[in-house]
Amino acid sequence: MVQVSSALFTMIFGWSAMGFSADLLLFAGAGLRQPTDQLIQTFQKETGHTVSVTYAGSGQLMSSILASGQGDLFMPGAFFYIKKLEEMGRIDSSKNLVAHTAVVGVNIHKANLIRSFDDLARPGLRLALGDPKAMAFGRMARKILSHSPLKEAILKNVVVYGATVKQLAMYVSQGDVDASIIGRADAFQFRDRIRMVPIPPAYFQPEIVAIAVLKDSKHPKTASRFRDFMASKKGIAVFEDFGFLPLATGDAQEGKP
């Protein structure tokens, strides 16, 4: 009888030494791209499974999931979107990962003009905000501004609305706008060109980044394995390396909004 090596068997039939090699489809918020890409590479090397990923604004991703009925995993920039799909019966399970914290990202050349959140109301500034219908940080910015007595003055300075937090960070880093409300991790990425200005704690609470297995998953066991990998200590450490902050003790549990 002809003996076939496991490596050759894998190459010919698409099976790993540990069993069937699944191809997962992940929908992920654009602001989570850097740590996610790194972790996907590690997961693929360790397991033999593959993970295809679509990055976009969280609202756009939710609409895609609902319209297509496809996908194995969903990792938006805010738990709000998982909760919405859960209410529709589209979520199997979820685990919390890290905090998605907002800051005012200021172009380095405007750092002398914008030293506090209230400085966003200065006449003549050019600001960018996220589209609240398309992305998590658009919703967050709207909430933050609702608590500020300077809301109307700040909104008068908005010259563009972005579809993803990465787009907002690029606008600021390139000097297309003077400042924007973006994620701490995104400002961290461009820390040579963007200065972080804190937002008053009374104005907002950090969003929770979580990863959910979708009810429509064709490979629920493998999807759950990837979910657990992302939520592991090793996975969380990679997120923190890219500027994300750990969750408060009470939030570091499964499926808490």
Please outline the helices and strands.
Blueprint: H1 6-13, E1 15-16, E2 19-20, E3 23-29, H2 33-47, E4 50-56, H3 58-68, E5 73-75, H4 79-87, E6 91-100, E7 102-107, E8 127-130, H5 136-146, H6 151-155, E9 158-162, H7 165-174, E10 179-183, H8 184-189, E11 194-197, E12 207-214, H9 220-230, H10 233-241
Parallel strand pairs: 3-4, 3-5, 8-9, 8-10
Antiparallel strand pairs: 1-2, 5-12, 6-12, 7-10, 7-11
TL;DR of this structure?
This protein is α/β, with parallel strands linked by helices. It has helices spanning 6-13, 33-47, 58-68, 79-87, 136-146, 151-155, 165-174, 184-189, 220-230, 233-241, and strands at 15-16, 19-20, 23-29, 50-56, 73-75, 91-100, 102-107, 127-130, 158-162, 179-183, 194-197, 207-214. α2 packs antiparallel against α10.
